[in-house]
Amino acid sequence: MIRVGIVGFGKIARDQHVPAIAGSEKFVLAATASRNAHADGIPAYPDIDTMLAKEPTLDAVALCQPPQVRHGAARAALAAGKHVFLEKPPGATLSEVVDLARTADAAGVTLFASWHSRYAAGVETARQWIAGKELRRIDISWKEDVRHWHPGQAWIWQPGGLGVFDPGINALSILTQLLADPVRLEQASLEVPANRKAPIAARLAMRSASGAPIDAVFDWRQTGPQTWDIEVETDAGLLVLSHGGNTLTIDGVAQPLPAEAEYPELYARFAELIAAGKSDVDVAPFRLVADAFLTGETSVTDAFED
Ligand code: NAP
């Protein structure tokens, strides 16, 4: 069994990591490190350094804090010889992630930059269907209610928290999994609330390697039904991934899919990487976000209160 410690015991740790570890034959939850929360019956420490010092038999850590503090924790874990699972996004900057990949290689341990949406039920079937077809266009619509999904998460509005790109990067992680060749960003516009430091909405104009237009709209002001859709028009028909990649239609016909199992599959992948002595650090989704911040035209919009 791989003894794993969770760092940052917040929403995603409780909702997804704990049940995925409990259901895994490869992992056991051995400790948590969090300032204000813990898992019942599991050794708990206030921070990662204390956890690493007191739990020398830990094999791995899963870093579930906000991205702004992930690099320091990952560095500490790698220095202690632990395998590291990074929640998405893998850090606050691209250069941090490059540093971690290099450090993990030098230490001979596994670094896994996870992208949970790539394990949504319809993504692999969609990838296989798209392969070899001629792309005409892709439209991404990722619109959700920030008050519902990120209540009171101050970090998400701070620099490095990504704002609406926190969910938007999930769409970009699916996009970059669906297409074999790299996507490039051409233009972006970002709307930032007057009282916040990160965007509440964004539009991206991208292009596939073959020249097909790819448009994305991310918006956190959606109330009512939530939208996490990707439409892919090809020379052989229209593919639509909805519900964050968990339902799939081709020319309007629903496709049979396996049950949803994003986090169990992430942990299965982490175990495989550890057994093979490999890392998996794909920064393609994060690079598109960085490009949007680099080149995007920013406008100020209405102040936002939680
Ligand atoms: P969250 O509920 O705010 O939990 C993060 C936890 O990290 C906090 O509860 C806090 O626990 C700890 N923490 C450590 N340093 C912190 C700091 N400087 N500021 C704030 N918290 C700090 O956030 P989350 O929704 O679980 O998201 C965490 C990561 O998972 C993000 O990168 C997010 O993109 C990713 N993720 C989230 C979801 C989702 O649906 N929520 C889905 C997939 C991935 P203590 O106060 O106890 O230390």
From TrEMBL:
InterPro entries named in the record: Gfo/Idh/MocA-like_OxRdtase_N, Gfo/Idh/MocA_oxidrdct_glycsds, NAD(P)-bd_dom_sf
Entry GO MF terms: nucleotide binding
Domain Gfo/Idh/MocA-like oxidoreductase N-terminal stretches: 2-112
Protein name per Swiss-Prot or TrEMBL: Gfo/Idh/MocA-like oxidoreductase N-terminal domain-containing protein
